[in-house]
Write a structure and sequence with these properties.
Keywords: Hydrolase, Multifunctional enzyme, Purine biosynthesis, Transferase. This is Phosphoribosylaminoimidazolecarboxamide formyltransferase/IMP cyclohydrolase. The chain is α/β, with parallel strands linked by helices and 196 residues long. The chain has helices spanning 16-25, 34-42, 50-54, 69-76, 82-90, 106-110, 117-122, 127-137, 151-160, 165-195; strands at 5-10, 29-32, 48-49, 98-102, 143-145. It has ten helices and five strands; from the N terminus they run βαβαβαααβαααβαα.
């Protein structure tokens, strides 16, 4: 699948500027959230703010920003399903072909000495796993990247025109593994808290 629009929302910004530059050079429109958007803009990369796509501001201290049909419809649409295409047209939803997301640093947060339960809870990512899982589910049409180690490969594939099917499936498997490990870390932390 050719990548026309990408959504980038990362806590770990390692390598993200280089990837975004490669995306921009390949003519890909980039949509992004708060901190990532600021980093991309500071690097001179054109970026569309997620709130401009959703028509809704980031609210509740950033807890709600990407949980929106304009985002998830764009990710989950089955591109060759006429009903999905019709819904996209009726609701003015643009497809999202690449999702580059890594999650709030929950594991690193709880590793800090004397971290409060409240701080730990605020580092439980909700929108990130939802986007990752949506993109991974729809890997036939969407490329999902949760590991910065793949950025150079993705940039190289963009130059060739598209990301191969088997590589998209590999990335989807990695994405589900990533969210499963993330949730497992959270449930273990809460279990430990309950046992005290």
């Amino acid at each position: 699948m050719k990548i026309k629009r990408a959504l980038i929302s990362v806590s770990d910004k390692t390598g993200i500027i280089d990837l975004a530059k490669a995306l921009h050079e390949a003519g890909v429109e980039i949509v992004s959230t708060g901190g990532t958007m600021k980093a991309l803009k500071a690097a001179g990369i054109p970026v569309l703010y997620v709130s401009d796509v959703t028509g809704f501001p980031e609210i509740m201290d950033g807890r709600v920003k990407t949980l929106n049909p304009y985002i998830h419809g764009g990710i989950l649409a089955v591109r060759d399903n006429p009903e999905h295409q019709k819904a996209m047209q009726e609701h003015h939803i643009t497809g999202i072909d690449l999702v580059v997301v890594n999650l709030y640093p929950f594991k690193q947060t709880i590793a800090k000495p004397n971290v409060s339960l409240n701080e730990a809870i605020e580092n439980i990512d909700i929108g990130g796993p939802a986007m990752i899982r949506a993109a991974a589910k729809n890997f036939k049409y969407v490329t999902v990247v949760v590991n910065p180690d793949h950025y150079a490969e993705i940039a190289a594939m963009l130059k060739k025109g598209e990301v191969p099917d088997d590589f998209r499936m590999k990335l989807a498997q990695e994405a589900f593994k990533h969210t499963a490990e993330y949730d497992d870390c959270i449930q273990n932390y809460l279990l430990q808290k309950m046992e005290k």
